Amino acid sequence: MNDTILIQSIAVAIVAGTPLVLAGTGEILAQRSGVLNLGVEGMMLMGAVTGFWATTETASPWAGLALAMAAGALTAMIHGVLAIGLRANQIVCGIGLVILGTGASRFIGDLGDDPVALRPGRGTFDPLLEGGLADLALVGPILFSHDAIVYLSWGFAAAASAYTFRTRRGMELRAVGNNPAAADSAGINVARTRFLHVAIGGGAAGAGGAYMTLALFNSWSAGITAGAGWLAVVLVIFASWRPWRMLVAAYTLGAVSSLGFTFQLLGVGVPRELLSMLPFIATLLVLVVTSAADSGRGSAPSALAAPYFRERR
Amino acid sequence: MIPRIAVEQRVVPSGGRRSAILACSILVGLLAGSLPILLSGSNPWDVYREIVSSTLGSVRSFHETLRATTPLILTALAAAVAFRMRLYTIGAEGQLYIGAIAASGAALAMGEGHSGIYVVPLTLLAGAAGGALWALVIAVPRAYYGTDEVVGTLMLNFIALHIMNWLIFGSVSYWRDRQNLGFPGGKLIPESARLHQFWGRADIGIFVAVVTAVALWLYLRWSPRGFEWRVIGDSDRAAAYAGMNVRRQVIVGLALSGALAGAAGATQIASVTYALEPRAIEAGGLGFTGIVVAAVAGLNPRVIVPAAFVIAGITTSGPSLSQIGVSPATIIALEGVLLLCVAGGQFFHHFTLRRAPAAPAPDPTPAR
After folding, report:
1. Across B127-233, where does the E strand assignment appear?
2. In angstroms, how far is CA A307 from the centroid of its own chain?
3. To probe the interface with A, which of B157, B327, B331, B354 has the most A CB atoms within 10 Å?
4. Residue B252 and residue B235: Cα distance in Å, rounded?
5. B367 falls in which pLDDT band (50, 70, 90)?
6. In terms of C-beta distances under 8 Å and separation of at least 24 residues, what long-range contacts does B298-304 make, across chains too?
7. CB-CB neighbours of B242 under 10 Å
8. Residue B144 CB burial class (10 angstroms; 0-12, 13-18, ≥19)
9. Nearest to A16 by CA among A276, A217, A234
10. In principle, which of A65, B128, B147, B278 could form an S-S bond with B259, CB 3.0–4.6 Å?
């Protein structure tokens, strides 16, 4: 009986961690290019509302996912224009993006006579495999019982990892994030590389938001992401800018938060709030220890959050 | 043919130019904010007029705006102090929670039967002390190891939120009202710790905030430490060469920023909720709105006071907007647009766009 609860909570952790894997991996790509986009929460909310709207219109969650990615990427492009084009302060801009996304998504959700906020769901992502593998003990619920997006998020993390470390483009991406002046001298278009990866990050955040409205909740309400976008930013540090580790980081976080409920079910007397605090304390410690060891930002891209002025090269 | 635009660097932005750029950015923001309102079938002019009339239209609404201005002045000062030193802390949220916990704890500990003359200041100081201590958790590693203060404070926000929730929802703590068997809530603080109300619903919090802003402006403008902070903000290397103790100033600056945010949390306890109510204290998003105010005010403590009043007016006009059929979310989006436009406008402090004299001949050598 207790085994079942444990296995179920691992399976739940994977589902709950999927928006974080998507948004966090996208944010890794953006940060690898040297752009800190704190606006993940805003981009996720835009994706969440537009994705749910499109799905209630077309009854196709895939159409919802596509529109959500477009909405997330468009929101990210605001950050791109300001932070890359106008060299604006990336921290201030990112916070502006969160506030804008929070307001604009709620605004969209309240529009019209048949507002999105009151609509029932009209389509969700079903588990990919019925019976067979999914019925296996232990690994069945954990590995084979999920919907397509969970597997796509694994593919995305794997592809992002291979792209960053195994391709020429990925090397250019890392060069732009570590030393834009040198990358520029080597003929890499710094602004274009940064803009592209910020947009990809936005698309991934939009997909993460849509996964919440389409798969986790099957409804839209204002502020539905409830801080998941900020968590994604935190997880980038925890994953030390490596897409593969984002899977571990996101599921650990998902497990710790679902562990609280499991403990309650089992009657273990650890308060849920204190348990939820642990990942943040751990990340803070990682941050302090790595900065003490490397005297600086640890494994972060060297030019992170620094605008690039070609004229000052 | 598209005219070629060249980017030209400016040496020193003048004060007048700064103000003009700020005004233009805000105007662009209001115009950009009008677009979605128009698209949703409402008149932006009606919306802006409703915001003004719900802020200044009646004595009651004016008082409500004043009460909402108090914490915004304090969190905006918190952001301004740190941002001027190029310490981009986003920790005002968490420092505000810890300030609220400390202030309500101090007020409960003092109990009934004392004079407000010293209970109120002690409550506010306890909040400031709580916020400053919470800021030190990141300020010390930032000063000694260069730990990234942006994500560090983000983490501390989450930890502070969980602590506050745990005190009320997860435990039978000193702060929790044990008589109340319904939805968990905080114990009410004694009457003597509440901010004195006058003129109906306005309270003395606004004076505390304005005096703090003026004092901070004088301090940053005229004290040696204010000068050191300006130098550190321009270049911490130059400051170190000049023999300034950059580490200590970073710690003091971040602690002062935390104290201001903590004091904002204390005013929420002493003027709005009268108890540690995590949901209500979290709902305002006062830490982040403070960044909007600070940016709109160009990080100038003097300008923060009127800017906080305007933004408070915008935030409190939500309910009356829904009466004229406009989503209250419009104001949140508008704040975001304003912040983005002001941030983008800073580009023109340091650069101007000029039409390039003529299109240069195509470069015969291959592109670099």
Report:
1. 197-198, 202-203
2. 23
3. B327
4. 17
5. very low
6. B298/B18, B298/B19, B298/B22, B299/B79, B299/B80, B299/B83, B299/B84, B300/B80, B300/B217, B301/B77, B301/B80, B301/B213, B301/B214, B301/B216, B301/B217, B301/B220, B302/B213, B302/B214, B302/B217, B304/B73, B304/B76, B304/B77, B304/B80, B304/B213
7. 12
8. middle
9. A217
10. B128
pLDDT of B189-198, one tens digit each? 988 888 888 7
Are B154 and A98 in contact (CB < 8 Å)?
no
Q: Model pTM? A: 0.90
Q: Which member of B334, B336, B343 has the closest CB to residue A89?
A: B343
Q: Which two tokens stand for residue B285?
A: 């998003």
Interface contact A49, partner B, CB < 8 A: no
Q: Is B319 helix (H, G, I), strand (E, B) or coil?
A: helix
Low-confidence ranges of chain A (pLDDT < 70): 1-3, 131-132, 134, 257, 260-261, 264, 294-298, 312-313
B-proximal residues of A, 260-299, CB under 8 Å: 271-274, 276-277, 280-281, 283-284, 287-288, 291-292, 295-297
**Which residue on chain B is closest to A107 by alpha carbon?**
B329
Of all residues in chain B, the one with the smallest CA distance to A295 is B145
Any idea which of A10-14, B52-56, B246-250, B356-360 has the lowest mean pLDDT? B356-360
Looking only at the bridges linking them, the beta strands covering B202-203 and B197-198 are: antiparallel
Contact of B59 with B45, CB cutoff 8 Å? no
Chain A segment 217-246 residues within 8 A of B by beta carbon are: 222, 227, 230, 233-234, 237
Chain B contacts in chain A segment 4-33 (CB below 8 A): none
Say what the pLDDT of residue A176 is.
Answer: 95
Which pLDDT score, from 0 to 100, does residue A44 have? 97
Torsion, Cα B314 B338 B334 A65, to 10 degrees, reads -150
Tallying the residues shown for chain B, one arrives at 368
pLDDT tens digits for B238-261?
888 888 899 999 999 999 999 999
Indicate the length of chain A as a whole number: 313
CB contact under 8 Å between A106 and B332, yes or no, is yes
Percent of chain B residues topping a pLDDT of 90: 46
Residues 325-344 of B with CB under 8 A from A: 327, 329-337, 339-340, 343-344
Whether A270 and A64 have beta carbons less than 8 Å apart is answered as no
Residues on chain B touching A86 (C-beta within 8 angstroms): 344, 346-347
Of B141, B157, B333, the CB nearest to A104: B333
Chain A hits for B34, CB-CB cut-off 8 Å, are none
B135 touches chain A (CB under 8 A): no
CB–CB of A93 and B343 under 8 A? yes
pLDDT at residue number A220: 95
Question: What confidence tens digit (pLDDT) does each residue in A83-134 have?
Answer: 999 989 899 999 999 999 999 999 999 888 889 999 988 888 888 777 667 6
Which residues, in sequence order, are CB contacts of B232 under 8 Å at separation 6+?
B85, B86, B239, B244, B246, B249, B250, B253
CB pairs under 8 A between A and B: 163
Closest Cα to residue A48, out of A167, A221, A169? A221
Q: Where are the extended beta strands (E) located within chain B? A: 5-9, 197-198, 202-203, 351-355
Residue bearing the bigger pLDDT, B193 or B97:
B97
